[in-house]
Design a protein that fits this description.
The protein is α/β, with parallel strands linked by helices. It has nine helices and 15 strands. The structure holds NADP nicotinamide-adenine-dinucleotide phosphate.
Length: 342
């Protein structure tokens, strides 16, 4: 059967372009005994794809985690219609032996596909959002690394995105004073609906002035999704022995390959030293052993109505490159996904 995939055709300079990716048709191998044929249903669109595009060899498949449906099976434990989750990249279809770990993406660790857990009637797409990687990143990146306490002040940057919107809500579950920064007025409105105590459009205000209003006693915990000037300004307002979870630095991803420019992020060392901060960079993969416990906790919050979500869904597998460009431009609120519609 004929399948489609997207390869990295050119090294992006600055903001990626649709032409940096090449759509390719391929003839899939036949499904042999023990194998299954998967068809993509939802593909995750994530900022990390931008910095991976700096190092992936040209011609490589672009990475993504995918919710896929079994459309042909020669494996006794998988039947047509079952849903799985698998990291096989920007592909419409994939033939795999579910017993064997595989690495469809250059440089990524081998993984096995997983049968999609039964979350009890919730939308399957949540396995890529609040009940998946962004959820676990938010939950453990906040609670395991920053010792958050009731009454403390938490700042979240990238607050209306997949990870940030969950971090802020967990901050409220923990009874913290939660402040979020996001890039549009409508995102700010949504953050207020989610229960953030304060939310600001960072494109319109001064971060330092906003923190004077919302954190008069300083910031105790900072969950950083963006880096750059926003983070410098937050670091400068942190209390002595404040804690920082360094999750991402999206403000610099488009400039990573440009060695002619000075680093985008102003030095954070001085406020980090002056305020004696504990700073934890992390990758969510460090918690693979506790992943399902985290998902259960998140599902519990969701079922109690304490965790709300939004998804920005781009329709059509062919629009994968545009959906990726849009996430870097801030067009998404909540989790960015492509619904393949194959
Ligand atoms: N460490 C880990 O294991 C791990 C795991 C998952 C994600 N991450 C990181 O966490 C961050 C959030 O990921 P996500 O999946 O939740 O993405 P996301 O926040 O849903 O989407 C990215 C958002 O970044 C914002 N943005 C883009 N350019 C920006 C800039 N120059 N300055 C400030 N904000 C900018 C945009 O929102 P605005 O409209 O608000 O600008 C955009 O919507 C990313 O940095 C990602 O790499 C890390």
């Amino acid at each position: 059967m004929k399948a489609k995939k997207f390869l990295l055709a050119k090294r992006p300079t600055g903001e990626p372009k649709v032409t940096d990716f090449e759509a390719v048709q391929e003839e899939l191998p036949p499904v042999c005994d023990g194998e299954i044929l998967l068809e993509s249903v939802y593909l995750s669109v994530d900022p990390y794809m931008r910095y991976m595009s700096e190092s992936l060899p040209l011609g490589s498949i672009m990475p993504s985690t995918v919710i896929a449906r079994v459309v042909e099976s020669k494996h006794a434990n998988y039947k047509v219609g079952d849903n799985v989750i698998a990291a096989y990249g920007w592909r419409s279809h994939f033939v795999v032996d579910p017993e064997k770990p595989f690495s469809a993406i250059v440089g990524m660790k081998q993984t096995k596909l997983q049968i999609l857990p039964d979350f009890g009637g919730v939308p399957t797409s949540l396995a890529l959002g609040i009940l998946g990687m962004p959820g676990v990143t938010a939950l453990y990146g906040l609670t395991k690394l920053t010792q958050p306490e009731a009454g403390e002040t938490l700042v979240v940057s990238g607050a209306a995105g997949a990870v940030g919107s969950i971090v802020g809500q967990i901050g409220k579950i923990l009874d913290m004073n939660v402040i979020g920064f996001a890039g549009t007025d409508s995102k700010v409105e949504w953050l207020k609906e989610l229960g953030f105590d304060y939310a600001y459009n960072y494109k319109k205000i001064s971060i330092k002035e906003a923190l004077k209003e919302s954190a008069p006693c300083g910031v105790d915990v900072y969950f950083d999704n963006v880096g750059g000037q926003i983070s410098y300004d937050v670091f400068s307002k942190m209390n002595t022995f404040g804690r920082v979870s360094l999750c991402g630095a999206i403000s610099s991803y488009n400039d990573m390959g440009d060695t002619s420019k000075p680093p985008l992020a102003p030095a954070i060392q001085l406020p980090a030293i002056a305020n004696q901060l504990s700073i934890h960079g992390f990758l969510v993969t460090r918690w693979l052993n506790e992943w399902q416990d985290g998902v259960k906790q998140l599902l519990g919050y969701f079922k109690k109505g304490k965790l709300k979500y939004r998804e920005t869904i781009t329709e059509g597998f062919d629009n994968m490159p545009q959906a990726f460009i849009d996430v870097l431009r801030g067009e998404n609120t909540g989790k960015a996904l492509v619904k393949a519609n194959l």
